[in-house]
């Protein structure tokens, strides 16, 4: 009987230990985010949205905030949902004056690239690139905040904070593609871009980061902006989801090299927890089967205008511009404005990162 009681006690303790693992009670001091317009929460417009900023005009922000906030969607972005999950305040943009960044800060900014201006100058795009807060600059912004965040004890404080590093890469590819570079040329830039991202991850690790999500790029061939500007008469140019194969192959190539690069960093720093955020697979699944994610429309734009293709995207009447209007049910749409997703999509992506299967390993462990 004593042996049986011991077994029962062991099983009870084991089950209790499983139940009490950090999946349910996991917490972080803060969340620090880096990236571009996918997760910017107002860095381009910390003093209010200027009239020239299309994404700073209604109906941006209408779903949740009731006004434009500098977020490129109808409501909240991924990091807003992550902050909410961990009981943290919404991340203030790092450029906000007088902000308290102890519980989080967002360095992401619209138009951000991985590479610095000199790279784009070297490939003949110096005049056309809008290089606003590239990766290196965002790390500098974070370093400037560190004394106010953690004083002299940054290793332990940042070691219990969550870092989201990216997505980086989307704008590095948009610039040359829209600038007329061939797909082969653009693919030639990918190794340099990946090297810059992994180097940035190592810099954060050196500052004290331990838990870091590094997202890949999205399936850009599924974005109505690309589908409209690069529409083809040949069905061979499209995959089964109606996305442009060549553009998606660029994203797949980037993500494959990124995963390899992160594996190398992980082996170098075994105590660090690197998590790959799989934007590509989740968004591709949402296009293929929107109903599985509580959506109705995969490739149709909620906020846009007709007259230029069949996706409700018109480059001359983009969301926030005269002639464009928003749907009344953005919660049913994947795509908000042709290149950014809706709050509903971002909520689903945040959940896919927290619990899996679209983050490897999942944030909650």
UniProtKB/TrEMBL annotation:
The opening ranks of the lineage are: Eukaryota, Viridiplantae, Streptophyta, Embryophyta, Tracheophyta
**Gene3D superfamilies, A to Z:** SGNH hydrolase
Protein name in the entry: Esterase
**InterPro entries attached to this UniProt entry:** GDSL, SGNH_hydro_sf, SGNH_plant_lipase-like
Keywords of this entry = Glycoprotein, Hydrolase, Signal
Secretion signal, residue range per the UniProt entry: 1-25
Q: GO molecular function of the protein, one example? A: hydrolase activity, acting on ester bonds
Q: Which family does it belong to?
A: Belongs to the 'GDSL' lipolytic enzyme family.
Q: Which Pfam families match?
A: Lipase_GDSL
